[in-house]
Amino acid sequence: MDCLNISSLDYICKNHCLYPNKWISAVLLPCYSTSNRPRFVCLRPKGYNASKVKYYANSTATFNQARLTLAGDIASNPGPEISFLSSQFDFGAISQSKEDLIIQNEDSQYYYIPTIVSTHRRPSKKIYSRNINNVISITRVGHLPRTKSTSNFALLNVRSIVKKSTHLCDLVISHHLDILAITETWLKGTEDDNHVITDINNILPHFKLHHIPRRNRKGGGVALLIRDGYTVLQNSIMNTSSFEYLDVSISNKSETFRLIVLYRPPLCKKNNTGNSFLQEFSSFLEELTLSRQPIIIAGDFNYHVDDLSNPEAASFLNLLESTDLIQNVSGSTHRLGHTLDLILSREENNVITDVRILSADNISDHNLVTCKVKCTKPKPSTLHVKHRNTKRLDLASMIKDIEESNLITNPQSCVTELTTQYNTNLSSIFDQHAPVNERWVTLRPHSPWYTDELRKAKQDKRRHERRYISSGLQIHHEIFIDSCKHYNDLLTATKTNYYRTLISSSDQSQLFKMTQAIMMTAMTKDEELKGPVNLSS
């Protein structure tokens, strides 16, 4: 069959649900059955008209030629009429003759439709493949700067550090403090203070105590306990009669702030300082405002700043507002109530964050006020040590090397040379079997008397504290106070027994070394700041 007429096309279109009298661009191949009745098979992609064709940019199935042809106004093969040239196409893959591929339309014009029959199917995964060239290029952000660490700061009115040095050091270790401002140290600046300072320096060897004692009078005194690594410079101190303070500049790398630890005694008949405090403190703040450094004023002011009806507290707060200072503590800082311990800072460059009021574990009737200071914490102190791993020492091999050494096989006759030979040979053999290793170790606070019993008592104390904070009941508060007393008494007794046992078991040489180490620590770590304090009596 050379070509198909319109009637045959109508039959095919009706049986294939196509519109009659319209030209279809498809390949119709004749086939014959046993009855010699002609049949026409439409070669088309699977699902070409029966289902939706998946879109693929390089697929010929995307161009729906049949629908364009059925529209009626678009030719199946637009362009000038040309003669058939077999050389233009490769029919090697076509099973039909080229005459079967020539179809005549209604205008009796011949058009060739070259078709290649293939069983190859494009893998479906290529249809859904991703073109990475279409991905938007996102500029990578460099490594984000590390968040600067803050320093842990705390304020406590200890009410005599003389008999509470051990408990105070335990408080520093428990709360991981870097800087502790202390008021009412009750230090006098005499030799009686040495045992207190020695005790602190031995428990916290990597801290330094700066203090200004109150001389010739009981009570008072301010101090600063700060970790090694900060640079501390003392500033000039005014001669005041209504309050005592310590003024230092603390820096670490490029960060610097000015810290004032202040104590104002309460107003009483013997100490009439209430009227003069606002005047002296106002003059002090006027000079302080000239400093460009961030300022922190921490201390016990003995003002009920939480009581707005108190005229003295109102005058004090007005003075702070006029000098651009803000008060950061909110809540009761005393066992009987009211906010007495304050942390002041400038509003424009406030370096104080995360202010909290915590229990002082029954050390004082004041609570512990903690906060974060925007100053990078110094790295822990390190020590370069040398050690030998003697646990893995092969004694049999070492003894064999000693027996084969010149010390045994060829000893020197002279005593001096024999001594040199002895030291040289044994040192060489020992270095061979247990070489010297060097490393840096981080120094941390360590209490040699800290026992498992103390650890258990401390855990019970913290558990009772959490229960009291959760419930707020008075009975839980009393249980917590009792657990604090038990822990403090046990800490004092354990430390006393430790040193008593150590002294009794030491000989004269060991006792001398221990005493010398303790006293040398006190001499090198104590730093009393010479500040004029002239409180009215």
From TrEMBL:
Endonuclease/exonuclease/phosphatase domain location is: 157-366
Top-rank taxon, per record: Eukaryota
Q: Which Pfam families match?
A: Exo_endo_phos (PF03372)
Molecular functions (GO terms) = catalytic activity
Alphabetized PANTHER family for the sequence: ENDO/EXONUCLEASE/PHOSPHATASE DOMAIN-CONTAINING PROTEIN, ENDONUCLEASE_EXONUCLEASE_PHOSPHATASE DOMAIN-CONTAINING PROTEIN
The name under which this protein is listed is: Endonuclease/exonuclease/phosphatase domain-containing protein
What species is this protein from? Answer: Stylophora pistillata
